[in-house]
């Protein structure tokens, strides 16, 4: 028989998986002798079973719950529904990881009209008794029966107005009694039946509500954002009540052992006399600072300070606690490792090392790499953000805070920016032509596109805030307006974007500067670098990005997308001339113009990297992405080429493909137009030779990467061209310089035939954007549209373009590594898809033995920390 229920005395702090965080910590606090009102925890397995059984609590679980009620009655000497000594309990959810969005708390469960009378008489405090009852009806109706809170709040407000008072505490026992009966009438009106009076029935309702809340939309979104599997389930904690609302010698508080915003050591929190649970956070009355509690409750405060010290030492981390004082006596209701800002996390981890509580390895392991985002981008003022209400939500595609006037075209973004305006570029989707506009904007908002859409990838590369794929927007690009949340936004209206949460706000939210290079940050990253095994490179195409990435700790460039180099001023025209050539000679002539540009780009990259490795990937995207779409540009190109506009249009039309992602791109371009690969090889080799001449100690060894290979003969074909030109250049320069030719593994067939491909490739770099696209058969640009339905249907828990699919795509990677290494034991292995900057994916990359991960510059610190954590974990 499975045991589903545990007394607090039967558990301990290591049982988080089974008892949830709250349950395990209540048991642990009980074990170390802290004053905890006793109770029991219904396990996460019971929650999983509830869902397996079609959202039913089965008889076995139910009978164990009933058995444990009796045990609790024996422990407390009180009884459910008893008219002598009634037992009242709180019911709270508690998953393995603390999860906002789930049902939180029901207090005072076990009350009915008779029981209220009993406790009113026994305590001589009818006001307290009726206050408890009206709160219980309110909470039960809200969280168990989902009757909105507002109906009850309206009744309270009306009662206060009728009595001419402003504070809840000014209501008398009779007022509260009257409120309780109004609440019950409201309940009956909304639900159609009487408010339950049987405590056991109340308890079952509450337990079901907790289980149900595991699957509410808010919880599902939170889980997806925080890598929490649906399969974990939540536990339910049933705890006997301690009362903070019995009078002025009672109260309730929440406190942290260190400041969660700054990490400063010292008690930080709030306390409210004569209050219960949610009052402190609800803002009904202004609570006092925790330190002021000392004057009112000297003994309880002294005891609380000792408890805080005990708990911090015990958990060796900053604690976030809830407690109640009943007639001067302290009761601990909860403790957990407190949530904190990234800044605070850094300081606390370092301080714990200095205080001898943690080793540097443990300090590194404590920090959530996802939090680092906030240290690296400008941020909204947290208080202003909290007060603001979002009008829509897309994908948090690239973190940061952006606030500016709406513009609808890249040209407008540039023009407005040039006259000193801050703008947010709003597009249906972006294309390479928008790059300059994207750069000029503070942030980018797109209606379409997923985490690897053009907007998302480019914005992350630029370290610019981007919210992508907000399908709620009704866009009218032609008339420069859109509608969201019932409001029409015109050009020039101000909006704010939060690139971490994907939320969109109407109007301006004030910003504060982030300071990424404080001492604690540096210390943590230094430790991380000592522990990590994986090398962390960056995806960068410009010297600026490369320099930024170096500042952030990148050890090389893992992917330079050479096509991104053609969008700059003056480049695109030359490139268009090359594409719109009819003959090899014409194309070669156009390439001659491009060659020095590419060469100087590569030289600048090598300079920026100061001898660290640079992997240059040859041209990848389909050519039609580069052709002009504007009539004036077409005309200009026609004039330059001495052709008619019609001829150019015909040529552009001939480049059209039904499936460009699976079309004429990648190494297929080099097979059809070897002169492009020749030019790129010449540029890479000449650049390296020049830079080596200037900095002989750098010893630059070019790494040339051929994209989208699916068949060994493709690689042989292109490599032949590369080697011939490279050898010719090296010979002509009379230098002794090596170079490497490798490939991306981004098509399933390449992974399947890795043993053949490894014969020719000196390195493999997994292009997991395309590998995910082609393994799933999902378009990386369109999948966002249906993935939401997949999350809702529990088909997927996360976006496979953001978090590596270890079961499928990961299996292909493992196979490619094993088969590739069998042929070439020193095969160098990396990843440069977007997953290279995702912490869980980095952990997987460490596990399967990659040599490096490569990610956009602003994710480099995240990858470094994740790599260190993976190494620490895998060592253990
Ligand atoms: C990839 O496919 O993972 C990759 C890095 O290449 P791109 O995103 O440029 O297709
Ligand atoms: Mg690719």
Rg measurement, Å: 32 Å
Q: What is the subunit arrangement here?
A: single chain
Average pLDDT, all residues: 92
The tally of strands reads 31
List the helices and strands and how they pair.
Elements lengths: L4 E3 L8 H16 L7 E4 L1 H9 L6 H18 L12 E7 L9 E5 L3 H11 L2 H19 L4 H15 L9 H19 L7 H15 L3 H9 L8 E7 L10 E8 L6 E9 L5 H4 L5 E2 L3 H4 L1 H18 L3 E8 L2 E9 L4 H13 L5 H7 L6 H4 L2 E2 L1 H6 L2 E4 L1 E4 L2 E7 L2 H9 L4 E5 L7 H6 L2 E4 L7 H9 L2 E4 L5 E3 L4 E4 L2 E4 L3 E5 L4 E4 L4 E2 L6 H13 L3 E5 L3 H9 L5 E5 L9 H9 L4 H26 L4 E4 L13 H11 L3 H10 L12 H6 L1 H21 L8 E4 L5 H22 L6 E6 L2 H5 L1 H4 L5 E4 L1 H9 L7 H9 L16 H15 L4 E4 L7 H9 L4 E4 L4 H16 L1
Parallel strand pairs: 14-15, 15-16, 16-17, 24-25, 24-31, 25-26, 26-27, 27-28, 28-29, 29-30, 30-31
Antiparallel strand pairs: 1-2, 2-5, 3-4, 3-5, 6-7, 6-9, 7-8, 9-10, 11-23, 12-22, 13-17, 14-21, 18-19, 19-20, 21-22
Helix pairs in contact: 4-5, 5-7, 6-7, 13-14, 13-20, 14-20, 20-35, 21-23, 22-23, 23-27, 24-25, 27-28, 34-35
Bound molecules: phosphoenolpyruvate and magnesium ion.
Magnesium ion binds next to helix 31.
Question: What can you tell me about this protein's structure?
Answer:
The chain is of the alpha/beta class and 876 residues long. 46% of the residues lie in helices and 17% in strands. It has 35 helices and 31 strands. Helix 28 links the parallel strand 27 (703-706) and strand 28. Helix 4 (113-123) packs antiparallel against helix 5 (126-144), helix 20 packs across helix 35 and helix 23 (584-609) packs parallel to helix 27. The chain is elongated. It starts with a strand and ends with a helix. The model has no long low-confidence stretch (mean pLDDT 92). The structure holds phosphoenolpyruvate (PEP) and magnesium ion. The site of magnesium ion has 5 residues, from helix 31.
């Amino acid at each position: 028989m499975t045991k589903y229920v545990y007394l607090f005395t039967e558990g301990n702090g290591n049982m988080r998986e089974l008892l949830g965080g709250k349950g395990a910590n209540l048991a642990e606090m009980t074990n170390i002798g802290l004053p905890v009102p006793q109770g029991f925890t219904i396990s996460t397995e019971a929650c999983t079973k509830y869902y397996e059984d079609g959202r039913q609590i089965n008889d076995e679980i139910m009978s164990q719950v009933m058995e444990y009620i009796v045990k609790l009655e024996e422990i407390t000497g009180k009884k459910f529904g008893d008219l002598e000594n009634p037992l009242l309990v709180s019911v709270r959810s508690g998953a393995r990881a603390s999860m906002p969005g789930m049902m939180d708390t029901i207090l005072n469960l076990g009350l009915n009209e008779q029981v209220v009378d009993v406790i009113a008489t026994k305590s001589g405090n009818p006001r307290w008794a009726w206050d408890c009852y009206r709160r219980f009806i309110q909470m039960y109706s809200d969280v168990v029966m989902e009757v909105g809170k507002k109906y009850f709040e309206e009744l309270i407000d009306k009662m206060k107005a009728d009595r001419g008072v402003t504070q809840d505490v000014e209501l008398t026992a009779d007022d509260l009694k009257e409120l309780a009966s109004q609440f019950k009438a409201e309940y009956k009106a909304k639900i159609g039946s009487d408010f339950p009076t049987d405590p056991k029935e109340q308890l079952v309702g509450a337990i079901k509500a907790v289980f149900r809340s595991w699957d509410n939309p808010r919880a599902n979104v939170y889980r997806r954002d925080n890598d929490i599997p649906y399969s974990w389930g939540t536990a339910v904690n049933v705890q006997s009540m301690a009362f903070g609302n019995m009078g002025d010698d009672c109260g309730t508080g929440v406190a942290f052992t260190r400041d969660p915003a700054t990490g400063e050591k010292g008690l930080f929190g709030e306390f409210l006399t004569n209050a219960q649970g949610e009052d402190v956070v609800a803002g009904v009355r202004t609570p006092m600072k925790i330190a002021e509690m000392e004057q009112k409750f000297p003994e309880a405060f002294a005891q609380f300070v000792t408890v805080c010290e005990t708990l911090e030492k015990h958990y060796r981390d900053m604690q976030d606690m809830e407690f109640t004082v009943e007639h001067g006596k302290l009761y601990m209701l909860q403790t957990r490792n407190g949530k904190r800002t990234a800044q605070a996390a850094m300081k606390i981890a370092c301080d714990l090392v200095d205080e001898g509580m943690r080793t540097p390895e443990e300090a590194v392991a404590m920090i959530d790499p996802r939090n680092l985002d906030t240290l690296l981008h400008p941020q909204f003022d947290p208080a202003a953000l909290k007060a603001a209400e979002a009008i829509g939500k897309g994908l948090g595609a690239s973190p940061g805070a952006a606030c500016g006037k709406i513009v609808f075209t890249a040209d407008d973004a540039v023009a407005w920016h040039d006259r000193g305006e801050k703008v947010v570029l709003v597009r249906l989707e972006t294309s390479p032509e928008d790059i300059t506009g994207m750069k000029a904007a503070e942030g980018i908002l797109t209606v379409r596109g997923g985490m690897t859409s053009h907007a998302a990838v480019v914005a992350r590369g630029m370290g610019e805030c981007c919210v992508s794929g907000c399908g709620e927007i009704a866009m009218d690009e032609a008339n420069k307006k859109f509608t969201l949340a019932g409001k029409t936004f015109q050009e020039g209206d101000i909006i704010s974007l939060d690139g971490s949460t994907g939320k969109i706000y109407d109007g301006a939210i004030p910003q504060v500067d982030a300071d990424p290079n404080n001492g604690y940050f540096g210390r943590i990253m230094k430790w991380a670098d000592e522990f990590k095994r994986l090398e962390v490179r960056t995806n960068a195409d410009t010297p600026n990005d490369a320099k930024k990435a170096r500042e952030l700790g990148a050890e090389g460039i893992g992917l330079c997308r050479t096509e991104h180099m053609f969008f700059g001023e003056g480049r695109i025209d030359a490139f268009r001339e090359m594409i719109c050539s009819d003959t090899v000679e014409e194309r070669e002539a156009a390439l001659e113009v491009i060659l020095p540009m590419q060469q100087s780009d590569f030289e600048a990259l090598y300079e920026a990297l100061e001898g660290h490795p640079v992997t240059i990937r040859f041209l990848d995207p389909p050519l039609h992405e580069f052709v002009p779409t504007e009539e004036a540009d077409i005309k200009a190109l026609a004039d330059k080429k001495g052709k008619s506009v019609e001829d150019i249009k015909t040529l552009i039309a001939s480049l059209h493909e039904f499936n460009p992602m699976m079309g004429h791109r990648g190494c297929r371009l080099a097979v059809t137009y070897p002169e492009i690969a020749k030019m790129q090889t010449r540029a890479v080799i000449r650049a390296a030779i020049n830079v080596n001449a200037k900095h002989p100690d750098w010893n630059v060894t070019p790494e040339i990467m051929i994209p989208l290979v699916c068949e060994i003969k493709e690689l042989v074909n292109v490599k032949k061209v590369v080697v011939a030109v490279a050898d010719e250049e090296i010979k002509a320069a009379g230098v002794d310089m090596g170079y490497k030719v490798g490939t991306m593994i981004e098509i399933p067939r390449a992974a399947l035939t890795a043993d053949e491909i490894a014969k020719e490739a000196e390195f493999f770099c997994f292009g997991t954007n395309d590998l995910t696209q082609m393994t799933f058969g999902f378009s990386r640009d369109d999948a966002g549209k249906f993935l939401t339905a997949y999350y809702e249907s529990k088909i997927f828990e996360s976006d496979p373009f953001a978090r590596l699919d270890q079961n499928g795509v990961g299996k292909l990677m493992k196979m490619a590594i094993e088969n590739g290494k069998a042929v070439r034991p020193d095969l160098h292995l990396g990843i440069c898809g977007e997953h290279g900057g995702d912490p869980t994916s980095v952990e997987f990359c460490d596990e399967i033995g990659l040599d490096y991960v490569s990610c956009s510059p602003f994710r480099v610190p995240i990858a470094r920390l994740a790599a260190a954590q993976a190494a620490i974990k895998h060592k253990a």
